[in-house]
Amino acid sequence: MSMNRTVVTNGYIITLDDSLGDIQGGAVLIEDNRIVAVTRNAEEFAGLDAQVIDAQGGIILPGMVDSHRHTWMSLLRSISADESLPEFLVNTFYGLGALVRAEDMGAATMVGALEAIDSGVTTIMDCCDCVNSPDHATAAVESLRASGIRGVYAYGMQAYDFQPPAFTAHAQRLKDAERLRKEAFSSEDSRLRMGMLLSDFGTLPFSETASEILLSGDLGLLVASHTGAASTSILLKGLRELNDHSLLRPGHLHIHCNGLTHPEWELLAATGAKVSISPETEMQMGMGYPPFRAALEHGILPSFSTDIVCVGSGDLFSQMRLGLQFQRCMDNHCVHQRGHMPSKIDLSVRDALKWATQGGAEALGLASEIGSLTPGKKADLIIVSQSRAFVPSSYPAGSVVLQTTAADVDTVILDGVIRKRHGQLVGYDLVTVRTRANQALERIQQAAARLKRKTPEEVAQWFAMGERMAGGNFAGAYAQGIPAGK
């Protein structure tokens, strides 16, 4: 039986495996799609019948994991750069989402997946909350598979004013999720699994939210939700109501969580929750402070997400840098409040690296497969080039987190396949990808030109109505009384 071998050598290896640590000048041996060995002496692999990748002094580390990325919005770069969360929801999310056709979805998903790979992200949770028709879901999955990226396709249950409507009832969306699970995920796929992105809490009757969670359990899907993403608002809350009905379950990935109270964090910890944090969008859009410290204090390993390129960067280096330095600032502020200067930095760049790799792997239920350069795990590996620097890094982990951009990613190996080399994506028809994407964008822009943007006053009224609706929907959880024992 033939075996494809690759040796990655001549770099500084950050394994993120506590038993292996960092290795200067070692090598990683890959066979097919698995890491089989990591050595401190590259000479051990000399003479092997293997392809050799010379890192040329770069930094070798695990592929990063983006635990919350909306690839369907990848065509709308920076469109929401000056929008608050309510403005974004009214004018971009629901406004433009209603215009997205299945062919647009396929083009956008491919762009989003390739942007992730190009920036050293080898695994994503694709939060596809714009399933305007069954064809939209199928097109998204086809593009994810064609890209070769690893991850979870999270079928979104949000409803848009798409015309003509393919779904006229919530039950039809549930039925289509079952259809996709059977048609596209019936066999074991080594790279792509299915999940469900729940309807935003409070926007539907409680019984319909419950039906989404129950179906996810029946189909064996990873469950994700935008949770507590609007500080000071009742929208996207409802954790107590869900827990009272035994609907908060281990592995549920809660995204954002900025507005959660201490009792709500205790509910997440008690129910085995995972947490995804998007520093860039959360800080801009008025969601609240990125809750790294709250997650850590409740024993939850955070993970990073890029969320949407409608706002900021599509790479995790930016999220690591912004998120870590934000939390350091907040921690230092607590010391200043006591009248002292901070004498030490608590959170390290290695913490941020861990959140971007192992944290994401745990969030997606893949900790045994990815997240570190551990023999036996999948061969997801990247090389960060140091060629633009005039001198080598004195602390490679620090350079990765605080000084790296997507442009510095020299090589990406995903499931044992080289997807980027010498700074260029390989194995894709990029001309066709760009042409298809630009045609889709042009069509969406033409359709969007006919839409009337809501004024700030109209946005505020819309959001206030949503909060009133949420209050009624959460109350509906107790239409038949409080469950026994609660």
From TrEMBL:
<feature type="domain" description="Amidohydrolase-related">
    <location>
        <begin position="59"/>
        <end position="418"/>
    </location>
</feature>
<dbReference type="InterPro" id="IPR050287">
    <property type="entry name" value="MTA/SAH_deaminase"/>
</dbReference>
<dbReference type="Pfam" id="PF01979">
    <property type="entry name" value="Amidohydro_1"/>
</dbReference>
<dbReference type="InterPro" id="IPR011059">
    <property type="entry name" value="Metal-dep_hydrolase_composite"/>
</dbReference>
<dbReference type="InterPro" id="IPR032466">
    <property type="entry name" value="Metal_Hydrolase"/>
</dbReference>
<dbReference type="InterPro" id="IPR006680">
    <property type="entry name" value="Amidohydro-rel"/>
</dbReference>
<protein>
    <recommendedName>
        <fullName>Amidohydrolase-related domain-containing protein</fullName>
    </recommendedName>
</protein>
<dbReference type="GO" id="GO:0016810">
    <property type="term" value="F:hydrolase activity, acting on carbon-nitrogen (but not peptide) bonds"/>
</dbReference>
<keyword id="KW-0378">Hydrolase</keyword>
